[in-house]
Structure formats: structure tokens, C-alpha cells
């Protein structure tokens, strides 16, 4: 049953993120909120006893680490392809672009290539690796977008306006 639950969580998170990513939305003021979904995904991944293939532990760990590192890089690319702007009343907005769509395609291709390479070597890749990679991806993307949105913050060094 945990495999079915993991699959449902993966599909739900990807659908949720895609719908939110490609529609314009207000940038949240609470950066801790960005940690919730990655933390839940990482917890689910790390509690899985089959996170590594017991017959090929070293090679399985290499695939897990490579997958997470690649997703970190792709998460950064995804964060930099997100359009961020400020409207007239000072509200910060974000929206995925066409480049964001291609970043998603790249993420899928990388994940398929990793699964194919592992299968060719006889290494079993479970859903835990995908959950952990997705957690890293979302965490880095959120961090990059938050970092980029800071440029729209208040100018503390400027003099106060008279009312």
C-alpha cells in the first residue's frame, strides 16, 4: 500500500505544482511555507526502507545522489525561468514561462534517463528516490524564486517620503 500512496502523492504534487506554476499568482510573504511540501516529500522518501536497492547498495546510492544533484540544478534553472514582476500597488507576482515548460520537459527526460540507466545496470529504483529528488527540486526552485523576488523589496536605504 505505501507504493500506491507514494504514487498518489507524486501525481498530486506534480499536478498541484504545474497548475500553480503556469498561472499568475501572488508571491507569498512567508518563505517558511515553501518548506512544507519539500519537507513532507523528503520525510516520505527517507522513511521508505527500500530507498536503496539491497542487492546494489553502492550503485543505488550513486543513482540517488546523482538524481538529487541533477534535480537541484534543474530546480535552479526552473527558478530562473519563472517570470517575476511587481504591479502598480506593490504586489509581487510570479508565473512560469515557455522556458519553464522546457525546464519541466528536461526534468522528465533526466528522470527517465536515470531510470533507464539504472535498469540497464540491474539496479532497482523505487519511488523514494523520485520523492527525494522532487523535494530537492521544489526546495531549490522556491529558494531561487524567493531570492529573485527580493529585488522588489522595500528600499530601506532611501529617505522616507513626506505625507
Give the SSE map:
Elements: H1 2-21, E1 25-26, H2 36-47, H3 57-81, E2 83-86, E3 92-95, H4 98-120, H5 127-149
Antiparallel strand pairs: 1-3, 2-3
Quaternary status of these chains? single chain
Strand order of the largest sheet: 1-3-2
Derived structural class: mainly alpha
What count of structural domains?
1
End-to-end distance: 63 Å
Number of DSSP strand runs: 3
Describe it.
With 163 residues, this protein is mainly alpha-helical. The protein has one domain (2-151). It is 63% helix and 6% strand. The chain is built from five helices and three strands. The protein has helices spanning 2-21, 36-47, 57-81, 98-120, 127-149; strands spanning 25-26, 83-86, 92-95. A three-stranded antiparallel beta sheet has the order 1-3-2, covered by helices on one side. The chain is elongated, with a radius of gyration of 19 Å.
Short structural description:
By secondary structure, the protein is mainly α. It has helices at residues 2-21, 36-47, 57-81, 98-120, 127-149, and strands at 25-26, 83-86, 92-95.
Descriptive key words:
163 residues, mainly alpha, three-stranded antiparallel beta sheet, 5 helices
